[in-house]
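This section describes the prediction task in plain terms. A model, or a person checking by hand, is given the sequence of a single protein chain and must write out its three-dimensional structure as a string of tokens. No templates, partner chains or ligands are provided. The sample shown here is typical of the held-out split.
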Amino acid sequence: MSNLTSTSLPREVADAYVDDLIELDPLLGTYLGVASAARRLPDFSPAGADRLAALNRRTLERLAAAEAVDGAGSGVERRCARLLRERLTADLAVHAAGEHLRTVSNLNSPAHSVREAFTLMPTETPEHFADLAARLRGVPAALEGYRASLAEGLSRGLPGGPRQVETMVVQFGEWAGEGGEGGSWFAELVAEGPQDMRAELDAAAADATAAYAALRDWLRDVYAPAVAGTPDAVGRERYATFSRMWNGTDLDLDEAYAYGWSEYHRLHAEMVAEAAKILPGKDPWEVLAHLDAHGQAVEGVDEVREWLQALMDEAIEGLDGTHFDLADRVKKVEARIAPPGGAAAPYYTAPSEDFTRPGRTWLPTMGRTRFPVFDLVSTWYHEGVPGHHLQLAQWAHVAGDLSRYQATAGLVSSNAEGWALYAERLMDELGFLSDPERRLGYLDAQMMRAVRVIIDIGMHAELEIPSDSPFHPGERWTPELGQEFFGRHSGRPAAFVESEIVRYLGMPGQAIGYKLGERAWLLGREAARAAHGDAFDLKAWHMAALSQGSLGLDDLLAEISAL
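The expected answer:
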């Protein structure tokens, strides 16, 4: 760790950690817009994971020394130190459990991270395409390291879940261009490159394509048979380790499970009332099915991208100066269509640190050309404005007042997802969802997050379904029951529901952070409102809360309650 001394403060330790982390994880460098990282890929082998763990341990030692320096107790230093310690400790617990040796997921594996990084790389100049070609040539070694980790996991008796593996086999085949009408995804990626680089780009894309096809074959022929019969759910002990990583707190899982059910019942009553405004006498999911076929919709892929862009632009115009004070560079966000072959859920990628790459929302089309509006409006308030984009872009904007770590690599999932779900509720509170179709879609999205708490904890911890439940009372949760329950309580297509179940099984503890994070944001707002009384200023609170940088749920509620 260069440039650290005996008088370095926690923020300096944290920022030095980011520099060292980028050396080990160039994909983080691409996410942040660091040009020097563009040609490299991480070492996903067991040795690479061990090097990352060693860096985390060294950083904790440096942090302990920094916390003893005069000035380390100030607000921003204290928050940074607590975040860094909590994050590194959580990561080391995951590593100690060997979870890096069985990371299989439909969206959160090393193989997925590699492909996503290519969507963030600039492609405006020949130099950009040279970077692209160099990184593509590194894909075989990166995926071989990942394969070696999975093989090591098998040798240690640490198998991944069969459902996740089955999904990855299909995804990697699609990325390799097999079974479709077009070429591989990587060939399409370089298709617009300079003609004088054509041979180099095509060869590099072919190398990456072959590497994904080879990994697919190994997963199908070697790994899948070896893990056949393994439970997809991880059990209560492993779940607790993952939950700490995603949420920044040691949750009371039984209390969180009960909260999920209480939200389910509250939201169900609201959905029944809202559905009656559209089709009296029909239950909410009958109404949502009707809207899916006959409600307001946008026709065409290009058209829906433009519509989503306009929706975010309108939200910025309606919120800036009234409920938020936004810097000009925070106001830029782009709607994009997601590359094929990924998970079904929309997502967001943050701007680069210097904002040369803007924040972007991504819509997976899943082969569709018609897009019902009820399913999109609150989702784009979540992914874009005032959700993920306003929070993460504001962090980047105020990074100089925080630390680089607090604004980027230290992100706690439940903080960000909780804010984004709070943002959906805020737009309802402010009257942006007065149309019955859009409001029922919002309530359906809220119900999905409550259902996630119930089935994510329920499936992994094998909890009992309450005796007063309308669904299989007294039985223990299984993935099959989770998928059935989700399907009965969602207006989304069956393919989306199936993709979500695979996601929850491959990312234990992540999906609960939306609802539990939202609860923390709401409780913090109400505590601040109670403390200030009539002098409470929601706009000022929003901007102060969004300028705190990342915090785990252990610290988030305390900090935003005191603003």
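For orientation: The beta strands are 297-299, 333-337, 347-349, 359-363, 370-372.
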